[in-house]
Protein backbone atom coordinates (compact mmCIF):
# COMPACT_ATOMS: atom_id res chain seq x y z
CA UNK A 1 0.00 0.00 0.00
CA UNK A 2 1.24 3.47 -0.81
CA UNK A 3 0.17 7.05 -1.39
CA UNK A 4 0.65 9.40 -4.33
CA UNK A 5 3.93 10.78 -2.98
CA UNK A 6 5.42 7.27 -2.96
CA UNK A 7 5.57 7.51 -6.77
CA UNK A 8 7.88 10.51 -6.47
CA UNK A 9 11.56 10.28 -5.64
CA UNK A 10 12.96 11.11 -2.26
CA UNK A 11 15.06 14.32 -2.28
CA UNK A 12 17.76 15.01 -3.31
CA UNK A 13 17.28 12.42 -6.09
CA UNK A 14 16.18 13.60 -9.54
CA UNK A 15 13.94 11.26 -11.54
CA UNK A 16 14.56 10.19 -15.14
CA UNK A 17 12.81 7.50 -17.18
CA UNK A 18 16.08 5.65 -17.71
CA UNK A 19 17.55 5.80 -14.21
CA UNK A 20 14.56 6.29 -11.94
CA UNK A 21 14.85 5.98 -9.04
CA UNK A 22 11.87 3.67 -8.83
CA UNK A 23 11.62 3.17 -5.07
CA UNK A 24 8.09 1.83 -4.71
CA UNK A 25 8.38 -0.40 -7.81
CA UNK A 26 11.69 -1.80 -6.56
CA UNK A 27 10.11 -2.44 -3.17
CA UNK A 28 7.29 -4.38 -4.86
CA UNK A 29 9.81 -6.47 -6.79
CA UNK A 30 11.94 -7.17 -3.72
CA UNK A 31 8.90 -8.23 -1.69
CA UNK A 32 7.40 -10.14 -4.65
CA UNK A 33 4.17 -8.19 -4.16
CA UNK A 34 1.35 -9.26 -6.42
CA UNK A 35 -0.82 -6.24 -5.52
CA UNK A 36 0.06 -2.56 -5.10
CA UNK A 37 -2.68 -0.25 -3.83
CA UNK A 38 -2.07 3.50 -4.22
CA UNK A 39 -4.33 6.03 -2.51
CA UNK A 40 -3.83 9.25 -4.45
CA UNK A 41 -4.92 12.88 -4.57
CA UNK A 42 -3.25 13.63 -7.92
CA UNK A 43 -4.19 16.91 -9.59
CA UNK A 44 -5.63 17.02 -13.10
CA UNK A 45 -2.99 17.48 -15.81
CA UNK A 46 -5.24 20.05 -17.54
CA UNK A 47 -4.38 18.41 -20.87
CA UNK A 48 -6.92 17.05 -23.33
CA UNK A 49 -9.78 18.20 -21.12
CA UNK A 50 -12.33 16.95 -23.66
CA UNK A 51 -11.13 13.39 -22.96
CA UNK A 52 -13.05 11.60 -20.22
CA UNK A 53 -9.82 10.13 -18.79
CA UNK A 54 -6.66 12.00 -17.82
CA UNK A 55 -4.31 10.03 -20.08
CA UNK A 56 -1.25 12.06 -19.13
CA UNK A 57 -1.76 11.13 -15.49
CA UNK A 58 -2.36 7.45 -16.32
CA UNK A 59 0.84 7.37 -18.37
CA UNK A 60 2.76 9.15 -15.61
CA UNK A 61 1.70 6.56 -13.03
CA UNK A 62 2.71 3.73 -15.37
CA UNK A 63 6.08 5.36 -16.13
CA UNK A 64 6.86 5.73 -12.43
CA UNK A 65 6.28 1.98 -12.01
CA UNK A 66 8.42 1.00 -15.02
CA UNK A 67 10.43 -1.82 -13.35
CA UNK A 68 7.16 -3.73 -12.87
CA UNK A 69 6.60 -4.03 -16.65
CA UNK A 70 9.72 -3.03 -18.61
CA UNK A 71 11.73 -5.55 -20.55
CA UNK A 72 14.92 -6.46 -18.71
CA UNK A 73 17.08 -5.27 -21.61
CA UNK A 74 15.29 -1.89 -21.53
CA UNK A 75 16.29 -1.42 -17.92
CA UNK A 76 19.85 -2.53 -18.58
CA UNK A 77 20.35 -0.61 -21.85
CA UNK A 78 19.69 3.09 -21.25
CA UNK A 79 20.12 3.84 -24.96
CA UNK A 80 17.38 1.43 -26.06
CA UNK A 81 15.24 2.71 -28.93
CA UNK A 82 12.22 1.00 -27.40
CA UNK A 83 12.13 3.67 -24.66
CA UNK A 84 10.75 6.07 -27.27
CA UNK A 85 7.68 3.89 -27.73
CA UNK A 86 6.61 3.77 -24.07
CA UNK A 87 3.00 4.21 -23.15
CA UNK A 88 -0.10 2.37 -22.08
CA UNK A 89 -1.52 -0.49 -24.03
CA UNK A 90 -5.12 -1.50 -23.44
CA UNK A 91 -5.66 -5.08 -22.31
CA UNK A 92 -7.69 -6.03 -25.39
CA UNK A 93 -4.63 -5.79 -27.65
CA UNK A 94 -2.02 -6.99 -25.16
CA UNK A 95 -0.56 -10.48 -25.47
CA UNK A 96 0.22 -12.57 -22.40
CA UNK A 97 3.84 -12.40 -21.34
CA UNK A 98 5.76 -14.50 -18.85
CA UNK A 99 7.04 -12.91 -15.66
CA UNK A 100 5.86 -11.76 -12.27
CA UNK A 101 2.55 -9.90 -12.42
CA UNK A 102 1.67 -7.06 -10.09
CA UNK A 103 -1.87 -5.74 -10.08
CA UNK A 104 -1.72 -1.99 -9.45
CA UNK A 105 -4.87 -0.33 -8.14
CA UNK A 106 -4.80 3.46 -8.14
CA UNK A 107 -7.61 5.12 -6.21
CA UNK A 108 -7.40 8.79 -7.13
CA UNK A 109 -9.49 11.63 -5.79
CA UNK A 110 -11.88 13.43 -8.13
CA UNK A 111 -13.71 16.72 -7.94
CA UNK A 112 -12.68 20.27 -7.03
CA UNK A 113 -11.58 21.69 -3.68
CA UNK A 114 -10.17 25.16 -2.98
CA UNK A 115 -9.82 25.79 -6.72
CA UNK A 116 -7.80 22.60 -7.29
CA UNK A 117 -9.18 20.00 -9.73
CA UNK A 118 -8.22 16.41 -9.06
CA UNK A 119 -7.46 13.99 -11.90
CA UNK A 120 -9.93 11.28 -10.94
CA UNK A 121 -9.20 8.49 -13.42
CA UNK A 122 -8.87 5.77 -10.76
CA UNK A 123 -7.48 2.69 -12.48
CA UNK A 124 -6.45 -0.95 -12.36
CA UNK A 125 -3.30 -2.02 -14.20
CA UNK A 126 -1.73 -5.39 -14.83
CA UNK A 127 2.03 -4.95 -14.82
CA UNK A 128 3.91 -8.06 -15.83
CA UNK A 129 7.69 -8.04 -15.49
CA UNK A 130 9.35 -8.18 -18.91
CA UNK A 131 6.18 -7.55 -20.95
CA UNK A 132 7.38 -4.19 -22.28
CA UNK A 133 4.05 -2.42 -21.63
CA UNK A 134 1.67 -1.95 -18.73
CA UNK A 135 -1.90 -3.16 -19.33
CA UNK A 136 -4.71 -0.86 -18.37
CA UNK A 137 -7.49 -3.19 -17.29
CA UNK A 138 -10.04 -0.54 -16.31
CA UNK A 139 -10.29 3.08 -15.29
CA UNK A 140 -12.90 5.53 -14.18
CA UNK A 141 -13.37 8.93 -15.80
CA UNK A 142 -11.98 12.23 -14.56
CA UNK A 143 -15.26 13.33 -13.05
CA UNK A 144 -16.49 9.94 -11.83
CA UNK A 145 -17.26 9.82 -8.14
CA UNK A 146 -18.12 6.61 -6.37
CA UNK A 147 -16.99 3.07 -5.88
CA UNK A 148 -16.61 0.45 -8.59
CA UNK A 149 -15.97 -3.25 -8.25
CA UNK A 150 -13.53 -4.67 -10.77
CA UNK A 151 -12.76 -8.34 -11.26
CA UNK A 152 -9.13 -9.02 -12.07
UniProtKB/TrEMBL annotation:
Bias (Acidic residues) ranges: 74-86
Source species, domain of life: Eukaryota
GO BP term, pick one: protein catabolic process
Any one GO molecular function term: protein-N-terminal asparagine amidohydrolase activity
Region feature Disordered, mapped onto this chain: 74-100
Official protein name in the record: Uncharacterized protein
Organism: Hermanssonia centrifuga
Amino acid sequence: MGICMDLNTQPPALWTLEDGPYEIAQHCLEKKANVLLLLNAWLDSKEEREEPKDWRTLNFWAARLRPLWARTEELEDEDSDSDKEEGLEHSASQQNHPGQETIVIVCNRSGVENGQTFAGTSAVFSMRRGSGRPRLLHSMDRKSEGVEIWTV
